[in-house]
Design a protein that fits this description.
Elements lengths: L6 H8 L3 H8 L7 H14 L5 H8 L4 E6 L5 H16 L3 E6 L3 H14 L3 E5 L1 H6 L9 E5 L3 H8 L11 H4 L5 E6 L1 H14 L6 E4 L5 H16 L8 E2 L4 H8 L8 E4 L2 H13 L9 E3 L16 E3 L2 H16 L6 E4 L2 E3 L5
Parallel strand pairs: 1-2, 1-3, 3-4, 4-5, 5-11, 6-7, 6-8, 8-9
Antiparallel strand pairs: 10-12
Helix pairs in contact: 1-2, 1-3, 5-14, 10-11, 12-13
Length: 346
């Protein structure tokens, strides 16, 4: 039987001590980057594999993280899952995924992660609202992606995390909960201002579901842009992020509408179909802008002008923030600014 490659073997090839190899294996900050790369190259050359169970006994860490998400049916959540999985794998972390709707289901998910010994968890999008009512397991590092307004505001004003005794996730003030988010309002403002600059009159808005942090923030950005231009906001139409809901909602648009900001690209696809059904041309009769820049947005007919949300960067930032918390670093508050991508629809 082939002998298992040891740390001493790696040390000999890398030209370092076995203690230095041990530090690399245990993610110690006391290794300079050049030496770390040399040790990792030696590990790859020899086929060295970290004995995770033994390391967990030594360090109290399993190198496993959790993801709590309400659904993977939406394009945004599925892309975030891929981005987080890729970022976790690149850092040597295993990923446990819990799909849960409602506080009770999330509490059960936290319990499963506790039993599995995960080091920390990322709470994604819609799940963050329900998680506010749940006490997370003690010592579980948390990152919230797209926090509800209550968390954002409480974190921003610097109030004491335990001043009123409410639970940590509920008010967003617990120092263990990092926040990573897209500046949805800024992206929506850019989209609306682009449409206003076309001189098509008031910009209508097809929003996502009520209570969604992303939908609320995109609506806020739309309203801010209209207010800044001195334009009264038309009534908001609403969908559920799906293209079918966009098609249904767009049939309620008045015939005089000439510009529409849609809360995501999936609903925008339904809007394009509804306008085509009504004999209205895009962009000649109606200009349309979406949000997210999904993989197929450039293939829509016409190619969709949209706001690009960088899911890969968002997922990487969430994993980076969680690893930092697991290692005892400060709770980050990271906001990524999306980019308007102009194509043929507006």
């Amino acid at each position: 039987m082939q002998r298992r490659v040891s740390m001493a073997d790696v040390a000999a090839v890398a030209g370092v001590s076995a203690q230095t190899v041990s530090r690399v294996v245990n993610d110690s900050p006391r290794v300079d980057p050049e030496t770390r790369l040399r040790v990792e190259a030696a590990m790859d050359q020899l086929g060295y594999r970290i004995h995770r169970a033994a390391r967990a006994l030594r360090t109290g860490r399993t190198d496993a993280i959790g993801l709590v998400v309400s659904t993977l049916a939406t394009v945004g959540n599925s892309r975030m899952l891929q981005a987080i999985a890729d970022a976790a794998a690149s850092r040597g972390y295993a990923l446990t995924v819990v799909t849960a709707i409602g506080a009770d289901a999330i509490a059960q998910g936290f319990a499963r992660m506790r039993d599995q010994g995960v080091d920390g968890a990322i709470i994604l999008n819609e799940a963050s609202a329900a998680a506010r009512a749940v006490d997370a397991p003690e010592h579980l590092a948390l990152v919230v992606v797209d926090s509800p307004a209550g968390e954002r505001d409480a974190t921003a004003d610097g109030r004491d995390a335990t001043a009123d005794g409410r639970d940590a996730v509920a008010d967003g003030r617990d120092a263990t909960a990092a926040i990573v988010q897209t500046d949805h309002a800024a992206g929506a403002r850019a989209a609306t201002e682009h449409l206003l600059a076309l001189g098509r009159g008031p910009v209508w808005h097809l929003a996502g579901p009520a209570g969604s942090y992303a939908a609320d923030e995109r609506e806020r950005g739309w309203r801010d842009a209209l207010a800044g231009a001195g334009v009264a906001a038309p009534p908001v139409l609403r969908g559920d992020w799906s293209s079918a809901s966009g098609h249904v909602a767009a049939r309620e648009l008045p015939a005089a509408v000439r510009a529409v900001f849609v809360g995501n690209d999936q609903m925008a696809l339904g809007v394009l179909r509804a306008l085509a059904d009504a004999g209205r041309r895009v962009p000649e009769d109606v200009a349309v802008v979406g949000f997210d820049d999904v993989a197929d947005a450039a293939q829509y007919r016409p190619p969709l002008t949209t706001v690009r949300q960088d899911f890969d960067a968002l997922g990487a930032a969430a994993v980076d923030a969680l690893v930092a918390r697991i290692s005892g670093g400060p709770a980050a508050h990271v906001t990524l600014t999306p980019q308007l991508i102009v194509r043929a629809s507006a």
